[in-house]
Amino acid sequence: MIRGGRSYVKSPPSFSNDAKKLLVCTGNNVSVFSAATGLQITSLEGHTAPVTTLIVVPASSAAQKILCYCWTASLDGTIRHWDFSGPELLKTVDAQVPIYSMVIPCLLSEPQQLDSSKLVAYVSVEDTSLVKEGSKELRGHIRRFNLAKERLPRGDTLKETEEPKSIVISPSGEFFGIHHKCKIHVWGVPSGGGSRNALAKKMTLHHTKVINAFAFHPTERIIAAGDVTGRVLIWRSFGNRKLALASQKKNARSMVDLDNPGVRDGDDAESCTTWHWHSAEVNVLNFSSDGAYLYSGGREGVLVVWQLDTGKKKFLPRIGSPLLYFIWSPEPTLSSVVCADNQIHLLKMPSMEISRTISGIKPPPSLPKMYEGLSSTVAFDRSSGIAALCTENYCVQLYNLLNDRGISEVQVCERNHQPGDEITVVVTAVALSLDGSVMSTTEVKLPEDGIGGLVSLKFWESEPDNKTFTLSTIVYEPHKDAGVSAIAFHPTRSMAVSTSFGGDFKIWVCNSDKSQTEKDSSWICHAVGSYKKKPMTAAAFSGDGTVLAVAAENVITLWNPVKNMLLSVLGATLTPITKLCFVGKSEFLVAASNFPKPELSVWNTSKLSLSWSYGLRIEAVTSAVDSSTFAVLALVPKTFRKSKSKKNIFRGRDGAILLFNGSDPKPVSIWTVMKAQGGSISFLEGDKSQLRLAFVNGSHEYVVFDPSSDDTHERSAIDYEGLVGEEETGDFGYTSLYGQLPDYDKKRKEDAESLATPFISSERPWETIFSGSTLNFPPLQKLCGEFFESLMEKSNSVVE
To answer: Where are the WD repeats (predicted)?
Structure first.
């Protein structure tokens, strides 16, 4: 089993002491990447819930830079100590509550005098043990724990908030704090941090706007904060009164009566300066290692460098996505910036040139409601295990599912990232040819105030063994003013079909098939077809490519794609068909309908009849090329998931993958999955000896597994009959108009029983032999025998 597509950007990453490795929180694990190549080296596995905090133990000397130790905290309520060079788990501490953030000040302040018995951590946890369901009591707690123990008691609570907050620590380890609404709460770490009586002193800084991020200066008492309006605030000389040591208080001059410019509510700071460049909220703040510069970033996708003394600035523009974190490495010439599109860029400093990018799967695009459920935004190259996924900023990302790494990107239409931009273009579909050499996309430029609007169909081609696609052909308004509902490629030829809600489909061919040079190849229209002017909603080629199935609303039409000749029409389904798929090279065809009455149906194209159907809402259908196996991704009805007997099975999962074999309506296997809505599935057949199934969920997380193996995955124990039986039933067709027809068979049987007269032999059988209904005569042999016997006289004489 291969899992991937996890987010790299939920928590800030961390560099190793030699700056050669980058540790990244990826779900329940920590992935270790090479800073030189951007490839994953190893991973730390053991947590049972997402890892929220990662702390690399710093080296106290140059000789210790080879040491590779780190601490991790997770929502599973444990804190773990690792040697990530192995990797090896060294210690586990049970905090008994989910941990959202953690800092260990003594690792920064006194690394050379570190006493493991006095290792103190300050953690942000969520404690719901005393909170009633639905109440507004404070769930987030800032607590202090002694990591010398393996099972932690409740600990000292420093602060309570409505929800857990992220803790920020100063590079010197002297201060830590949280931002809460319009305030920054700062604690000074006591010198005897391991002592239970050594309490952390606290102060608060106030602002008029909600604060998004803040950072401590590495050497001076300076705090920088960014708010939701894009302002950057600099507080200088904070905590000289409230956080000063006893020896410092005697020499500290009182600032209560002094004019402290920019300082509000008598805060303990000498001054507060405001800078404003960002047009939206500030998410990133970090000082340079020498404290001379401040780095800030936000939704604009621009990294701004401020000179702290003068306020002058320079920029790293066009990063292309909102910024989340900026992290320095122990090597001053290397840093990293983390972006919301699930990418981590490694920067050469001070030029800020992007030297390497660690790319996860980018998140799916935000679609207008009118396109939700109608778009096909994931396609698969079955031979190489590469998926083409539509992402934000009108891109298609090529991602290797087997290696869990990005390959390339295709910019479907140009767009510069700007915060707050309205969606003006929607990429509604992406499709790949069977060999992965050709890709097709459709995009819709939305009309403005009801004026304009444009539909484009594009064909992209790649070189052999190279997944860098270049634009080959663009067709504007391929179906007049109607949108494209589906695209499908021929399995063996350079041919594709596009269907339209306007009532027609078009078959496209590459003119390289017509003795044109490859350099001049382009895609042209080969044929146009329609059926009774019905909307064409789905299409699929047969396994050998000799038959093209096109859904004309709720009717399936079969065509010869070369001659564009209608071969046959299959019976109507209950609702419009949204997906079609031939089952390998067999005669079976799978059709799926969603609204208003969901249905999964399997048709026999040789007999032109329906084999079986289920009332399931289907998100995706896939079939193996060389076998009669097919699989569907179904959304499980809420009524079925919420039943008491099924809650332990689903555990928050909203979908199921059902594996079928040919025309057998009973599934071979069923797997329950999460985030099924918007998901997709496909068989991967690059390795002929092993058939694998890939599932990409609605958040672009994925799993690749062997559907025939019991060792690589957990099969669900749900009953398939109950799964399809829980669907709501209703009247349709004739019944919806005129009601239920009487049961004529039952009535006819009752009438027959009431009219039937039992046959009884008598001395005068001809008087009763024909009594009763003519439909209930005795058998002919019995009837003739009795009749002729009645005509003969019986003789009592005995012949001697």
So the answer is: 204-235, 275-316
Separation of alpha carbons 276 and 231, rounded Å: 5
Instruction: Report the pLDDT value the prediction gives residue 241, as an integer from 0 to 100.
Output: 84
Task: List the end-to-end C-alpha distance of the chain, in Å, as a whole number.
Answer: 98
Is there a contact between 331 and 16 (Cβ–Cβ < 8 Å)? no
Average pLDDT over residues 571-581: 89
pLDDT band at 492 (very low <50, low <70, confident <90, very high): very high
Tokens for 197?
């009586």
CA pair distance 410, 419, nearest whole angstrom: 21
Do 682 and 608 contact (CB within 8 A), yes or no? Answer: no
Rg (CA), the chain: 36
75's CB contacts (< 8 A; 6+ apart) are 49, 50, 52, 98, 99, 100
CB atoms inside a 10 Å sphere around CB 365:
19
Cβ-Cβ contacts under 8 Å for 265 (sequence gap 6 or more): 206
Reported in sequence order, the residue ranges of 317-411 that DSSP labels E, i.e. its strands, are 323-328, 334-339, 343-348, 353-359, 378-381, 386-391, 395-400, 405-411
Cis ω on the peptide bond leading into residue 330 (within 30° of 0)?
A: no
Residue 199 has pLDDT above 90, yes or no: no
C-alpha–C-alpha distance, residues 727 and 469, integer Å: 43
Cβ(523)–Cβ(431) below 8 Å: no
**3-state DSSP of 173-216:** CCEEEEEECCEEEEEECCCCCCCCCCCCEEEEEECCCCEEEEEE
**Block residue for tokens 């509550």:** 97
| 3-state SS assignment for residue 242 | coil
The H-assigned helical ranges of 243-292 are 246-251
**371 φ/ψ angles, rounded to the nearest 5 degrees:** -105, -5
> In Å, what is the CA distance from 268 to each residue of 232, 239, 486, 492?
19, 5, 64, 74
Distance CA 683, CA 623 (A): 7
Residues 6+ apart with CB under 8 A from 509: 493, 494, 495, 496, 523, 524, 526
pTM confidence score: 0.81
- DSSP 8-state symbol, 605: T
Who wins on pLDDT, 584 or 417? 584
